Amino acid sequence: MVDITAHELLSVQDRVRDEVRASPSFEVAAQRYVQEIHAAFSGEIALARMFMTIPFDDLPEDLRRSAWKVVEGQALAAQIKPTTPVLTLLGSHGAEAEWCDRKASRGHAAIPLCSHSFVDSIPMVARMLQEMGVDLGLKLDTERYVKNVLGVGWVGLFYVEDARSARDTKGRRVIPAAEFVDRHNIRTVFGLGKVYANGAITAFIAFSTKVIPRAKVELLVPTVNLFKASTNELVQSKRYFTPGDGMGPA
């Protein structure tokens, strides 16, 4: 990514377009997108993931259970409502075999954005949403918020130059998984977000083994624009999961 040429970037965009536009569901599109990005920059990106905010009521039963588990013991269960946006992992690909299946994820499969305080307790998610310009008042399920605050052409950018040293305003590590960062030599972590007309937000997150300048990350914006354009219909028709294969981790 650091040394990508204009021609190489166009090739990546073409592959993303070709792979994503024929997808039967959003999860298939998300998986194809992260696979293409990881393949294009496999020497630099250790792990690539795609998340999307999906209303709790639209999740399959197993992912609802995953969402409940995230907040159990924190007296937050009552705050989860049918329309609560849940940050749901729909695509995952990386250097380790277990990273290539979203169903193998533990703890990140479904994160309910049920309150400002709860989101703020998860440093990376809080920083990502804040840097992308998303209101932690969590008005994510309203069309008015999307049109008047974010706008349909919005692109959110999350950028952590060095995961080893980055801290938030409370002194917490922005990327709290210190063992993961050290073991896999993670440096720059970045994300790109898009919003759909119904208020759904999708976020691509990448964990790089090199320090990548912010300007280089911005070169990937056209790929997430293509991704959104190719998945608009899937989102509007709520084809988030492939029939018979929408099961997430327990």
The parts where pLDDT drops under 50 for at least 5 residues are 144-148, 246-250
Distance between the termini: 35 Å
Could you say what the CATH topology is called? Beta-Lactamase
Note the run of SSEs as H and E. HHEHEEHHHEHEEHH
The geometry reads as globular
The number of domains = 1
Please give a handful of descriptors for the protein shown.
250 residues, alpha+beta, Beta-Lactamase, 6-stranded antiparallel beta sheet, 9 helices, globular, disordered C terminus
What's the topology here?
Blueprint: H1 6-20, H2 26-40, E1 45-55, H3 61-71, E2 85-94, E3 110-112, H4 116-120, H5 123-131, H6 143-150, E4 155-160, H7 178-183, E5 189-195, E6 201-208, H8 214-217, H9 221-236
Antiparallel strand pairs: 1-2, 1-6, 2-3, 4-5, 5-6
Helix pairs in contact: 1-2, 1-9, 2-9
Describe the model.
α1 packs antiparallel against α2. This protein is α+β, with helices and mostly antiparallel strands. The protein has helices at 6-20, 26-40, 61-71, 116-120, 123-131, 143-150, 178-183, 214-217, 221-236, and strands at residues 45-55, 85-94, 110-112, 155-160, 189-195, 201-208. A hairpin with a 5-residue loop joins β5 (189-195) and β6 (201-208). Helix content is 36%, strand content 18%. Residues 144-148 and 246-250 have low confidence and may be disordered. It has a single domain, classed as GAF domain (Beta-Lactamase), CATH 3.30.450.
